Amino acid sequence: MARAVPKGSKGPQGGSKASLEARKARAAKVLAVMEQLYPQATTELSHANPFELLVATVLSAQATDASVNKATPALFQRYPDAFALAQARPEEVEPYIKTIGLYRSKARNLVRLAQKLVEKHGGQVPKDKARLQELPGVGWKTATVVLGAAFGVPGIAVDTHLTRLARRLGLSEARTPEKMGAELEELFPKEKWVYVHHALILFGRYRCTARRPKCQDCPLYAECLSKGAW
Ligand code: SF4
């Protein structure tokens, strides 16, 4: 049974209306809870190297990590690196990823991405956000995720889970992922940025879901601006 919350209760002031100091205090509580719940939080995308992580992250756009993980073992066996994938035609890649949404455009992007990696980066994944973003199918979020998970470059990539949680927890009300990422980075210690991204995704995926979040006994209940809304 969900805890009773008075109707109309707005909870503590949050988002951009709260002072930076207040939001930092809130972020500290969120971080402490995440470290309790998910001490080892990391990406759930299976990968063995930066190339595989880049491909898996491109595939994960508008798809679940689980669906990507089902497809990638055979894909990576057939195309183990950028050189192999660069030689493929998109129609040859499609059967490996057809269980994933938008597979036709993703197959095209992956082949072009591999060709660019070979042409411009010696087949390696660049450790530079601007260069990553020049690759087909790679935007700010994918570049930030790959830099963090593959190379440990600090950054908070914002996806739908982080957007929802940042608002519910009064951390940021920014309207673009880039702006929200910058606002979140102000609130958490730099060495925790990559961790915070992964931990909040797990919290959003398994507990604070978009519909029917598991508010009962939520360790962030006291901090939440949305408690009692369901
Ligand atoms: S109380 Fe509910 S809405 Fe708020 S953070 Fe917890 S699970 Fe999410």
Automatic annotation (TrEMBL):
Domain named HhH-GPD: residues: 59-206
Membrane-crossing segments per the record: none
Residues involved in [4Fe-4S] cluster binding: 208, 215, 218, 224
UniProt remark on cofactor binding: Binds 1 [4Fe-4S] cluster.
GO molecular function: 4 iron, 4 sulfur cluster binding; class I DNA-(apurinic or apyrimidinic site) endonuclease activity; DNA binding; DNA N-glycosylase activity; metal ion binding
Keywords, in A-Z order: 4Fe-4S, DNA damage, DNA repair, DNA-binding, Glycosidase, Hydrolase, Iron, Iron-sulfur, Lyase, Metal-binding
Location of region: Disordered: 1-20
SUPFAM superfamilies (UniProt xref): DNA-glycosylase
Matches recorded under InterPro entries: DNA_glycosylase, Endonuclease-III-like_CS2, Endonuclease3_FeS-loop_motif, Endouclease-III_FeS-bd_BS, HhH-GPD_domain, HhH_base_excis_C, Nth
Cofactor section: [4Fe-4S] cluster
Biased composition, class Low complexity, residue ranges: 1-10
The EC number(s) this enzyme carries: 4.2.99.18
Gene Ontology terms: biological process: base-excision repair, AP site formation
Pfam families per the UniProt record, alphabetical: EndIII_4Fe-2S, HhH-GPD
Record field: catalytic activity: 2'-deoxyribonucleotide-(2'-deoxyribose 5'-phosphate)-2'-deoxyribonucleotide-DNA = a 3'-end 2'-deoxyribonucleotide-(2,3-dehydro-2,3-deoxyribose 5'-phosphate)-DNA + a 5'-end 5'-phospho-2'-deoxyribonucleoside-DNA + H(+)
The family this protein is said to belong to: Belongs to the Nth/MutY family.
Physiological role: DNA repair enzyme that has both DNA N-glycosylase activity and AP-lyase activity. The DNA N-glycosylase activity releases various damaged pyrimidines from DNA by cleaving the N-glycosidic bond, leaving an AP (apurinic/apyrimidinic) site. The AP-lyase activity cleaves the phosphodiester bond 3' to the AP site by a beta-elimination, leaving a 3'-terminal unsaturated sugar and a product with a terminal 5'-phosphate.
Protein name: Endonuclease III
